[in-house]
């Protein structure tokens, strides 16, 4: 596909980010605008758009999209460290999906040269991409919220044995 979506996203990046921010600010189910500065809110969006454009241009399939989205796991890790709730991260990604879907219905017809099958496939890839971003957020939050587990050994990992702690090699343990 020779970079058609990458070019389209680069040309309209400002409008896409603006529409997404407007959607986040309008959504009363999150406190993201109160928690984050504008810069913190939009910091990762260009990287997400670039990776998505690559997936669309390469006509990536499920496994390829899954692998490419793993590189964006940092977005969820940063949101966790910023004190955002998991449902807020999911909602911001759902808003991004809606913005991208509306945008591609408007502008994607030109990129796909009127081929509605190609546009449908691109929209399906967007859905898969956003679904995978949400799954990565769940993984990050689950791993980060894992409660500490009690063990019989209070120190983990256990200290290494020193050479003097071992019995003679001739004897047995």
Provide a descriptive summary of the structure in words:
The protein is mainly α. It has nine helices and no strands. It is globular, with a radius of gyration of 23 Å. 24% of the residues are buried.
The share of residues in helices is 55-70%
Largest sheet: none
Overall body shape:
globular
H/E element sequence: HHHHHHHHH
- Report the sheet-strand fraction: under 5%
Number of strand elements? 0
Task: Give the oligomeric state.
Answer: single chain
Overall pLDDT confidence: 85
Structural class: mainly alpha
User: Which runs of at least 5 residues are low in confidence (pLDDT < 50)?
Assistant: none
Distance between the termini: 67 Å
**Whole-angstrom Rg:** 23 Å
- Counting DSSP H or I runs of 4 or more residues, the number of helices is 9
């Amino acid at each position: 596909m020779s970079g058609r979506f990458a070019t389209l996203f680069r040309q309209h990046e400002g409008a896409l980010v603006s529409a997404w921010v407007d959607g986040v600010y309008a959504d009363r189910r999150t406190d993201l605008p109160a928690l984050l500065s504008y810069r913190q809110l939009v910091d990762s969006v260009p990287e997400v758009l670039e990776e998505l454009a690559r997936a669309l241009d390469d006509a990536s399939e499920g496994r390829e999209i899954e692998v490419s989205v793993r590189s964006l796991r940092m977005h969820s890790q940063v949101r966790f460290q910023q004190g955002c709730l998991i449902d807020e991260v999911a909602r911001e990604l759902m808003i991004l999906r809606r913005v991208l879907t509306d945008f591609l219905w408007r502008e994607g017809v030109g990129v796909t040269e009127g081929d509605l099958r190609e546009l449908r496939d691109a929209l399906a890839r967007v859905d898969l991409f956003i679904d995978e971003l949400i799954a990565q957020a769940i993984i990050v939050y689950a791993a980060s919220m894992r409660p500490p587990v009690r063990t019989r050994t209070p120190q983990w990992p256990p200290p290494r044995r020193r050479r003097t702690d071992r019995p003679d090699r001739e004897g047995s343990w």
